[in-house]
Write a structure and sequence with these properties.
By secondary structure, this protein is α+β, with helices and mostly antiparallel strands. It is built from three helices and six strands; from the N terminus they run ααββαββββ. The chain has one domain: Roll (Thiol Ester Dehydrase, Chain A).
Length: 147
């Protein structure tokens, strides 16, 4: 398996952190682990993540899952290849308070084909309780040749 996508992702995430750009910087996500086919991101909940009911908005959790699952695909791609999310399915298991709860989101590749990749992800709190889980289908774009 190529590690070109993994190395590219490390560079992009480092640049985003240093420059404060990207959805990870916007939400306060941290990189816990990057390896081929598996990514772990962290997030500490904050009042800025709240929904009208006073808990973490489902969109925040969905973004965390989509990021981890998509980046797991990215770590598995050869140099010059790309991907995009085609489908995202999220199951919310429990509400999350907005005041400083540490979340851990693990995304992993289930299948990586020439055109399609499937992934799964899980968000747990600092006590290991399941918060949300999901799956994703990604379209894989081959490296552009001849340029």
């Amino acid at each position: 398996m190529s590690t070109a996508g993994l190395e590219q992702l490390k560079e992009l995430l480092t640049m985003g952190t240093e420059q404060g750009i990207g959805v990870g910087a916007l939400l306060g996500m941290t990189v816990e682990s990057l390896e081929p086919g598996r990514v772990v991101f962290g997030l500490t909940t904050d009042p800025k993540h709240r929904n009208p009911l006073g808990t973490v908005h489902g969109g925040i959790l969905s973004t965390l899952l989509d990021s981890a699952m998509g980046c797991a695909v990215h770590t598995s791609l050869p140099e010059g290849a790309g991907y995009t999310t085609l489908e995202l399915k999220v199951n919310f298991v429990r509400a999350v308070p907005v005041e400083g709860v540490g979340l851990r989101c693990e995304g992993s590749v289930v299948h990586l084909g020439r055109k399609v990749a499937t992934t799964e992800g899980r968000i747990t709190d600092e006590n290991g309780k399941l918060i949300a889980h999901g799956t994703s289908t990604c379209m894989v774009f081959p490296p552009v040749t001849g340029q």
